Amino acid sequence: MKKGTRLVFSFFIFLFFFFILVGFHYGFFLVFVNGDFLTLKRIKVSGNRFVSKENVLKIAKIEEEESLLTIDLLKSSKLLKQNPFIEDVEILRRLPDELLIKIKEKNLLVNFYFGGKYFILDKNGFVLTNGYYPSIPILEVNYSVNFEGNRIK
User: Fold this and answer.
1) CB 126 within 8 A of CB 151
2) Mean pLDDT of 33-44
C-alpha cells in the first residue's frame, strides 16, 4: 500500500472505532441512566431519631424514582450536615436500586427554658434551635444567662 492510501485507511479505521465507542457510551446512557435498571426504588435512613426520614429526603433533595447515577451524594451530604441536629452523614449507593443514608445526630441534652422560650441544647451547650422536644428533660433557670453566639456560657 502506498503511504497516502495507508493514511486514509488508518483514518477510516479510527473513525469506525470512534463511532462504535461513542455509540456504546450513548447506548449505556440510554439504558442505565434513562432506563428503569438503576432507578431508585428503596431508600433506607438509619441513625435518625430527631430528624424524620421525610425531612432527611427533603433536605437532601432526593426523590424516589430518579436514577441512582444522577444523585449527587456529596451535595446531598453537605445539605444534610447544615441541619443543626445532624453531626455527620454517610450516603451509599447499593446497586441496582437502593440508597442508604446513615446519619449521626448530635446528642440533645436538654430543653432549656429561659425568658419565656424553649431552646434545645446539645451536650456542648450549643443552642441547636428554638423549640421543645418532648423526650428530653427540661431545664428552667430564673437567673441571667450569657450567650456567646449560639452557645450558653
Assistant:
1) yes
2) 79
pLDDT at 32 over 60: yes
Contact 125, 150 (CB under 8 A): no
The predicted model scores a pTM of 0.70
> How buried is residue 89: exposed, middle or buried, by Cβ count under 10 Å (0-12/13-18/19+)?
buried
The pairing of strands 42-46 and 98-105 is parallel
Provide the CA 85 distance to its chain's centre, in angstroms. 14
pLDDT band at 2 (very low <50, low <70, confident <90, very high): low
Which residues, in sequence order, are CB contacts of 78 under 8 Å at separation 6+?
A: none
Closest by CA to 34, choosing from 62, 56, 65, is 65
| Main-chain dihedrals φ then ψ at residue 48, nearest 5 degrees | -90, 125
Phi, psi of 37 (to 5 degrees): -65, -50
Q: What one-character DSSP code corresponds to residue 136?
A: S
Provide the pairing of β-strand 147-148 with 86-94. Answer: unpaired
Using left for φ > 0, alpha for ψ between -120 and 50, and beta otherwise, residue 4 falls in alpha
